[in-house]
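User: I've been trying to design a sequence by hand for this structure and keep getting stuck. Would you show me what you'd pick, starting by listing the structure so we're on the same page?

Assistant: Good idea, let's start from the same input. This is the structure you sent:
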């Protein structure tokens, strides 16, 4: 069961689709918007279908609206602002992905038009309808910040997750070439508007933190972290490769640190291997592999994270790839198997995010080693 729980978020997003989904907004490619302080509009064609997006200021004291593309990290939907999506299909599910920085400060529910209900779990807000060609959403409690909107013509279009086919002994792996799914970003916005860790848009494909943008460098503190349940594992170890840009340390410094949070506190294991300082150019030519013995955390629940920090006085970039957490699986006794069969069900939304109190929608339920879908 534990292995399924560790992998469910990553697998749910890659699972096969039984219906058609359409990305109608993505901050990385937001499309063309027209409008002004009172409202903005956009027309998106996805999969041959047409979607109209609009945002309008409906409260007298609401903040004047800025273009959804004015910020590279998220679409700001201010308190007192209304967003509408209309389509030439019957929409049955809409998944809104929020920006989760600053301890989820700008994540929240929206007031929905009567045909829709919504469930908020983590940074995912899932809207469900029996079928509607439009939805109206209004931010009333606080500002929210949207990174992506995906519409589907069927609720619950993602099949139940299955245990991934990982190599023997591998608990989790991510090359960091395509995504940071499941990794929580924590950024200190008081220093700058730097949005932290991301996948490098250019070669090499990797996770990168680089606070040089807009023609200058900025102060920043950016973390990304992932929680692991090692209850079933022993002899745990981690391997990850690192490289640098602009700044080339040859030993451990506080600007680039890995940390491990456990029941015993926070530790900062030191990197031993650093890439050679390039004779010319601003970037490392090669990545340096590092391996960490994490056996002291065997059987624990831990969080592994990477912290990038700079005062803005000089340019710094940190690159990571080929993250592999591995260990030996503990043998399971008959009594443990019986206990697993009596385990309480755990619910996830269709994006693989755990839901404490599921209601009004389609959910993935994990009970023991069994995975299924259920409509509540």
């Amino acid at each position: 069961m534990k292995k399924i729980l560790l992998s469910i978020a990553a697998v749910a997003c890659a699972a096969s689709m039984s219906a058609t989904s359409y990305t109608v907004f993505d901050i990385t490619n937001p499309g063309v918007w027209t409008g002004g302080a009172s409202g903005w509009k956009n027309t998106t064609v996805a999969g041959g279908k047409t979607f109209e997006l609009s945002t309008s200021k409906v409260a007298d004291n609401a903040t004047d609206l800025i273009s959804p593309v004015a910020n590279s990290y998220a679409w700001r939907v201010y308190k007192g602002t209304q967003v509408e999506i209309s389509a030439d299909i019957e929409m049955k599910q809409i998944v809104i992905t929020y920006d989760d920085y600053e301890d989820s400060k700008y994540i929240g529910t929206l007031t929905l038009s009567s045909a829709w209900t919504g469930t908020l779990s983590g940074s995912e807000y899932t809207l469900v309808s029996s079928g509607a060609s439009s939805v109206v959403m209004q931010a009333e409690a606080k500002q929210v910040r949207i990174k992506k909107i995906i519409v589907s013509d069927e609720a619950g279009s993602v099949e139940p997750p299955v245990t991934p086919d990982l190599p023997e002994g591998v608990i989790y792996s991510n090359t960091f070439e395509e995504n940071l799914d499941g990794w929580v970003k924590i950024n200190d916005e008081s220093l700058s508007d730097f949005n932290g860790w991301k996948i490098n848009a250019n070669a090499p494909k990797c996770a990168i933190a680089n606070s040089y943008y807009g023609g200058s460098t900025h102060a920043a503190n950016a973390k990304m972290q992932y929680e692991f349940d090692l209850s079933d594992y022993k002899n745990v170890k981690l391997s990850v490769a690192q490289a640098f840009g602009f700044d080339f340390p040859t030993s451990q410094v506080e600007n680039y640190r890995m940390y491990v949070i456990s029941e015993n506190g926070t530790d900062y294991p030191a990197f031993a291997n650093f890439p050679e300082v390039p004779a010319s150019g601003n970037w490392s030519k090669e990545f340096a592999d590092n391996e960490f013995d994490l056996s002291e955390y065997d059987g624990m629940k831990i969080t592994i994270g990477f912290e990038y920090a700079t005062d803005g006085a000089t340019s710094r970039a940190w690159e990571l790839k080929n993250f592999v957490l591995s260990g030996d699986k503990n043998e399971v006794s008959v009594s443990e198997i019986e206990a697993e069969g009596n385990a309480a069900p755990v619910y996830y939304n269709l994006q693989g995010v755990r839901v404490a109190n599921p209601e009004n929608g389609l959910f993935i339920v994990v009970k023991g080693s069994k995975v299924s879908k259920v409509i509540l």
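That's my pick for every position. To get oriented when you compare it with your attempt: The chain has three helices and 27 strands. The longest strand covers residues 81-98.
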